Amino acid sequence: MFFRYTDSKLFFENIANASLYSAICPPVFLKENLPVEGLKWYYTYLLTLQNEYKELIEFCFDEDFYPEVMEKIKPAERYYLYKIIHNQPLTIQREEYFSYSRSNPNGKILPIHLSQEDFLSRIMDEYGPTEQHKEFQKKYNLSNAEMEVFCRFPISPNTSYKFRNIRKALELEFTKMLEQDICFRKCKRCGKYFIMKGNYSTNYCDRIAEDETRNCQDIMALENYKKKMADNAAIKIYNKYYKRYSARVKAHTILEKDFKKWKYQAMTKRNECIDGKLTEEDFINWMESCFKNRNRKH
């Protein structure tokens, strides 16, 4: 089996390493099926899984999927319905392992029941056994080292699962999302799914698309701001008079220093108009009064 895998790996390494699960659960081909037939089968297998889970995610998580029917139905309930529709068994069996691990002071993963501050405080505190510690230690026949390690270094419970192929790995992750009631949404900009975090509701993901430097949230926030500003009456008034007085500066009918002073005051008035502290009519009247050497057009 190992030599078959070694031979196969030469042909599908780039495909397998493109995905975590396909790298963890690589296929093993018979020599007579390499390279063409084996790779065709493997590609079809991955594509089938991808399409299957695209359909599953839409059916179970997409809020735009038959909203009249599914609006109040939880993802786990949708999955039950999906199983019924496709005549699939409602029970999934898997191997689960429960264990413990001691947290490493230099590790990046903290115990789930401790904050970073509490974790660091616990491992850095000097261990000074009290009489109660000694009594407990003696009663349960613990050594000094065992007692100190137990008090200073937190222990975390771990749950792990055993799977032998990509399908089982995806099935495990999908059902865990159902258990935790994960909320998906399709990004209104790029069209890709993203997970909703906490109570923060947004229509755009934080994914940075190829050939872009900002994520969809930032891009749309800027575009919405520009659109809002473009439609704002105060902005239009400001731009109109800015162009007018800027032209008069070039024509030398307004001094540069006076224009700069006006520009600062005009921006302040513009912001007041945007905030509703100044009416549009008052803003226009103020603009007209700044340089009176021309008559207002009616």
Question: Which key phrases capture this entry?
Answer:
mainly alpha, 4 strands, 298 residues, extended
Characterization of this structure:
- There is one protein chain.
- It is built from 13 helices and four strands.
- Helix 3 crosses helix 5.
- The model has no long low-confidence stretch (mean pLDDT 84).
- The chain is extended.
- Helix content is 55%, strand content 7%.
- It has 298 residues and is mainly alpha-helical.
* Helix/strand class: mainly alpha
- Helix content percent band: 55-70%
Topology, number of strands? 4
Alpha-carbon distance between the termini?
Answer: 91 Å
Radius of gyration: 33 Å
> Strand-and-helix sequence, N→C?
HHHHHEHHHEHEEHHHH
Strand order of the largest sheet: 1-2
Mass-distribution shape: extended
Q: Which residues form runs of ≥5 with pLDDT under 50? A: none
Give the overall pLDDT as a whole number: 84
Q: Please count the helical segments.
A: 13
β-strand amount: 5-15%
Largest sheet: 2 strands, antiparallel
Condensed summary:
With 298 residues, the chain is mainly alpha-helical. Helices cover 55% and strands 7% of the residues.
Write the layout of secondary structure elements.
Blueprint: H1 2-16, H2 20-24, H3 36-61, H4 67-70, H5 75-85, E1 95-102, H6 116-124, H7 131-139, H8 144-152, E2 155-162, H9 166-179, E3 184-186, E4 193-195, H10 216-230, H11 233-250, H12 256-274, H13 280-290
Antiparallel strand pairs: 1-2, 3-4
Helix pairs in contact: 3-5, 11-12, 11-13, 12-13
